[in-house]
UniProtKB/TrEMBL annotation:
This is Uracil phosphoribosyltransferase. NCBIfam families: PRK00129.1 (NF001097), upp (TIGR01091). The gene is upp. Its EC number is 2.4.2.9. The keyword Secreted does not apply.
Amino acid sequence: MNNDSLRVIDHPLVQHKLTLMRMRETTTENFRRLLREISQVLAYEVTRDLPTTKVQISTPLTQMSSPLISGKKLCVASILRAGNGMLDGVLDFMPAARVGHIGLYRDPDTLEAVEYYFKMPSDIAERLIVVVDPMLATGHSAIAAISRLKAAGATSIRFVCLLAAPEGVEALQKAHPDVEITTAALDEYLNDHGYIVPGLGDAGDRMFGTR
Ligand code: URA
């Protein structure tokens, strides 16, 4: 595992909220709210090194030179369906970002990702794409989504998740070494069904109440 391209958010409030999310008795309503809150922090971290340039402005009191974001514009790419649970929180922090969606399902036998939907802004080559999906498990969905984005012209991509398994991190880093990964926690391992352990179960089912 390459720790240079992996950022694990070590913050007491994030860890506290994540513990609540892991608990099996946490309600759908609370699960969704906690995911939104943690996603705000993840959005903060993934954008922490965006370039800025100083511009001259007038405050009500005086003039000053003050920074504005100067690099590529942002686009959030949600891997359906669980990625949508992170969208509101990420967009709270970067409300002007464009939003794309990538529909992938996991073949239950092979655990491979199969695409059924892809809709992104036409100018993705000029944007920093922040791919969101709460669970980086086998890495198949993330790898397929990022390959698809690159094939569509994206050149600058970051991946954000809530929980990652070491197997998923390694697979994603191997397939896309240029893509930085930001996560709230790195868990222990993947079980035979492709679930992250200790994990939190099926993130999509828990956020949408479809268990
Ligand atoms: N997807 C989930 O929702 N949970 C896991 O543990 C793995 C993949």
